[in-house]
């Protein structure tokens, strides 16, 4: 069976708070570990009332203590928001706490509106121009390049697995040039999926970390006992996405029966664009859609995303997905 991993945004539900969201993330990670998932990643997002994962390294420390074997990591850290030295220290500390289990996916997007740069006291647009150099510097800090004038402690010698993230050709080409594993964000930006994976594989250069290309693709997958149940569960995520793209983000709302059919054509079309990397339905439906996606992408690994208002339903969904793909 192809390795499966989990991407979690640590959603904050309506009527709930950050503390409860973090607690539920720990429970979800423990469930993923028990079900046999390979990784549990948290994505960096900022200034959104419905997402509690902004302090990724802190959230991962909590998740690490709730698990024992599953790899934990950032999917990802938006490096233009940060100083590479500080990230080396943070993930070096995580490696000290959870040796051999830590992944660090790196992205170039800010993860929030432009006003974030003012809050961080950074020119994020300019910082993004130096993203390739910052990635190289961060890798050198972790591997302990003697040419550096300073060592990160913790960080130096940490066995952190670096990944490149992307939703365009830029990240694919950079991952190939640096010999890093690559994860494509097809769950929310599928347009360049095929071209990016092709560029990554054809341009890949082996490195000390990776001898051959390793590509992971993301899907929104929510599994229920029936197609109708799964679509109802997925309506919370659909609502959150429409609100986000409409400039009105909020906490994760409860499900609404027939939500998609209630939307104007423009919103329906926006959601339909994501269908290529969406597997929502019964175990049989999910199995068919995931196998079709795997055949199309030839991915080495699939990472599944998708929030539900009921945390227990998300845990149950993860269990059903593993069984569906294994059958």
CATH superfamily: Luciferase-like domain
Radius of gyration: 19 Å
SSE ordering:
EHEHEHEHHHEHEHEHHEHEH
The residue ranges in which pLDDT falls below 50 over 5 or more consecutive positions are none
Q: Helices and strands: which structural class?
A: alpha/beta
Which fold does the CATH topology refer to?
TIM Barrel
Whole-number tally of structural domains: 1
Portion in strands: 15-25%
Give the name of the CATH architecture: Alpha-Beta Barrel
Helix content: 40-55%
Q: What is the count of DSSP helices, taking H or I runs of 4+ residues?
A: 12
Averaged pLDDT, please? 94
Distance between the termini: 9 Å
Report the top-level CATH class.
Alpha Beta
Total beta strand runs: 9
Major β-sheet profile:
8 strands, parallel, barrel
What descriptors fit this protein?
12 helices; 9 strands; TIM Barrel; alpha/beta; 8-stranded parallel β-barrel; 45% helix; 327 residues
Describe the fold and architecture:
The N and C termini lie close together (9 Å). The chain has twelve helices and nine strands. Helix 1 crosses helix 2 (56-65) and helix 1 runs parallel beside helix 12 (311-326). The chain is globular, with a radius of gyration of 19 Å. The chain has an eight-stranded parallel beta barrel, surrounded by eight helices. It has one domain: TIM Barrel, CATH 3.20.20. The model has no long low-confidence stretch (mean pLDDT 94). 45% of the residues lie in helices and 15% in strands. Strand 3 (71-78), helix 3 and strand 4 form a beta-alpha-beta unit. It has 327 residues and is of the alpha/beta class.
